[in-house]
Structures are given as C-alpha cells and as structure tokens.
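Cross-posted from the bioinformatics board.
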Amino acid sequence: MNSEFVNKWRSQVKKGTLAFILLNILKNNEFYGYELIEQMRKFTTIEIAEGTLYPLMNRLKKEGLVTSRWAEQDSGIPRKYYKLTDIGISTLTGMETYWQHLEMSIQKLIK
Amino acid sequence: MATSGNVYPKANKMKDIDFKNKSAQKIYDSYIRRMRRSITVLAKSDKEDILMEFNSHIYEGLQNTNKENQVEKILKITQRLGDPEVVLMPLIAEKKIEQATRTFNPKHIFQAILLNIRSGMIYTVFAILYICLFVFGIFMAIKIVHPEDTGLFLKDGEFIALGRLQSSENATEVLGDWFVPVMFFVALTLYFIFTIMLKITRKK
C-alpha cells in the first residue's frame, strides 16, 4: 500500500468535509469554539490544529452561513457563540443531498 | 455585516488569564505575545476579536483538561491550537483584505496584497497592476526635471508616446502644464478602479 498517497488523500478529504461537519454540529445548537472542537472529537476521528477552526468559522460567517455573538461570562472571559443562519440551514440541506448521492454512488462502486 | 453579532457589552479588550504556576504563566504569555506579533497588521477591533477568541479557547481548555498540572495543561492546549504564525495566516489575510477594500487606504492595500500573494495568481496580477501605477508617479517626476520633452505626444492626431521623447520627431506635446495634474488624476482613477475590481474578486 502507498500509505503516503493514502495520507495525502485523507487530509484532502478532511479539508473538504470540515465545513460540512461543523455546519452539521451547529444544526441543533449554538456552540462556542472550544465546544465545537469537543463535538468534533466526539463524532469524528478528525484531528486538526485546533486554531484552524477560527479562520474557517470566519469564512462561514462571511459566507452568511453562521452568525456569532459574544456572551459575557462570570470569569470575565467571554465566549463567542456560533449559530446557523437561515441561509446556513438551507445550504446545509443542499450539502446533505449531495453527500447522500455521493455516498450511494461510492457504495455502488466499491461493491 | 449588520448581523455580525459582535456587540459587546463592555470595553472590547482581552482579559489576561492569571496562572498560579510561573512556568505556566510564561508559556501562556509567550503564546499571546506570538499571537499579537502575528496580527499587528490588522485593525484594532479585529485584533481584539481574534485575541479574545483564542483566549477563550485557552480558558475553556484549562477548565476542561482535568488530569495534569497547569504547565502540562497549557502546553497541551497551545500545542493543540498550533503555531499562531501558521494557524492565523489565512484569518489575517482575509481580515486584512476586508479592511483594505473597505478603507481604500494604500497602506492596507499593500499589506493585503503581500499577505495574499501566495494564495493565487489573481493577486499577482493585482500586484502588477498596482505597481504599474508607480509609472505615473515617475512620469510626473520626469516632467518636473525635463519639462520640455516630457508629456503626451501626438502626431497628426495619432498617439506617439507618453513619457519622455528625446528627439521630438515632429510630434507635438499636447498637455503642457496640465501633464502633472492629468497624470495624477489618471493614476487616482485607476487606483480606484483596481481596488473596486479587487473587491469584486473577493466577493466571488
């Protein structure tokens, strides 16, 4: 097995699906950055440099898929919560449809 | 943009985390310093926003990492976050270009182009376009030194040269004293056009 090729391919898949995963996590709840990472760990085995989450969230916000708000905490260190927008919800639906198609095609192929 | 939601009740300023352990404090301070150094080119509000968000990440991490001592905790958290210089790069590039196209400030434009130059050919093209604007500045300087043979030269209504013409082969300079202001105006207009183009490419 060419494990180097597999590793490269895996990191491309990760990169390509990260936004999809995060939007899914935000589907039913609002979360702050650290919680998003925890949720990702809970559901996937994807390991990323955690700091890269924030550039990505900024991009999703710029695309109008999420909004954010600062929430004061007793500690004096506020949390920034992210939430899906209506556009985010409909975008996610579109992504899910595509994902299901892709999954079906791949299942047929690898049989 | 109106719904960006960064409405903040108090002064928009990061509150440092205090550690009992001195080594842990040092590691934390060093990480924050590296962050500050990486984001110096950004607007103040963007800087604080990024700092506060990473600070919150570190703080929440400290609350949720239970087993080790403080030094191990902060080490683990900062390692997982990654090198600020690397991790923040795309965020800085993005925020900088937002600021540049919002303010039309040449300093921000220049910094944004430098930051984004690696992310594709399109920015190289813009870099070249902006550099071309310097030509107009050079023309204005030459005009002041050699007022006689610098200008816009026409011959029988056809374009011959823009700039300095050594032996004016029957070509007539048409702008005269207007050369400097016209060059300035053209450069300014192009500058605005390029920046609007830059803004449009960003929206795609």
